[in-house]
Amino acid sequence: xxxRVLSGLQPSGQLHIGNYLGAxxxxxxIQGGYESIFCIVDLHAVTVYQEPKELAAKIRETAALxxxxxxxxxxxxxxxQSSVSGHAELAWMLTCVTPLGWLQRMTQFKAKAExxxxxxxxxxxxxxxxxxxxxxxxxxxxxxxxxxxQHLELTRDIAQRFNSLYGQxxxxxxxxxxxxxxxxxxxxxxxxxxxxxxxxxxxxxxLLDDLKTIQKKILRATTDSQPxxxxxxxxxxxxxxxxxAQACDSSVTKESVNGMRYGDFKKxxxxxxxxxxxxxxxxxxEVTADPAxxxxxxxxxxxxxxxxxxxxVRKVKSAMGLYV
Length: 324
Ligand code: AQP
What we know:
The protein is mainly alpha-helical. It folds into 2 domains: 4-182 and 290-320, HUPs (Rossmann fold, 3-Layer(aba) Sandwich), CATH 3.40.50; 211-285, Tyrosyl-Transfer RNA Synthetase, CATH 1.10.240. It is built from 13 helices and 5 strands. The chain has a 3-stranded parallel sheet with strand order 1-2-3. The chain is globular and about 70 Å long. The chain binds adenosine-5'-tetraphosphate.
């Protein structure tokens, strides 16, 4: 039997090249070797306010982008988190075994809480829900970008704590990071992670940006004031662009760009990114031409995973002595 892989992405904001290179590209590459489940985590998205109509549309857009970026519905289940009630149900049971201090230490909570006027409880509970997403399917491997490593560590801690309190119940999952592209930085500020929620038109390359806009954003990306690439001494801006190019096109090497003038180097980066995103955008247009197709994939995914989720919830309830 194949080991199970699970990962997810929030249907909020514009999916960007960091989400793709850090997560979805990796999912597409490994999906065949595992029993793969990829989840549109809409319950996570509502930890901050989402306009309801926009959220509903984003869920389908995200599913279409998964497919366009190489997730094969014949090999993987694509699901919407809120369509399987076990995610929320298990999250409550895990909340009850999670010490508050573990959640308050999460760096993403601290960073996001700083930006909110009022901090919803959901923002604090977010990593417990993420643990539930993973443990619900007894996933062995979780491919994510580096920013999620701390949440994965917490998932392991919660699983182990539950197992030691109530007996062996959960598989303790391992993190799987991409070799190149685990942390893509903002184009406008290469010291900050590229992020959907960051504002500023020059910050991120959205997967659906038109090709001219992509080129413009890359040509305007912040760098230091050296005239040419020096791979020994390059600053964070050039290093980030090089990572993006290498993750998009494996023929881009340090040697092949060393000594290039910044203008030419940026053109090479844009070429690599456009060559990677153009077929994804074409496929996206094909996939979205038939909305019923997307809904069919999501229904099929749900039907496939539901028995797994129900089995785990039953086991957890039984282990805790709840009414089964
Ligand atoms: N900059 C990044 N580089 C590499 N990987 C990244 N990921 C996110 N940003 C980068 C990975 O994308 C997956 C899905 O992320 P998410 O939608 O759950 O939310 P996030 O991690 O919080 O991503 P964002 O884009 O920064 O969204 P906001 O601004 O809403 O918080 C994860 O595997 C993540 O590691």
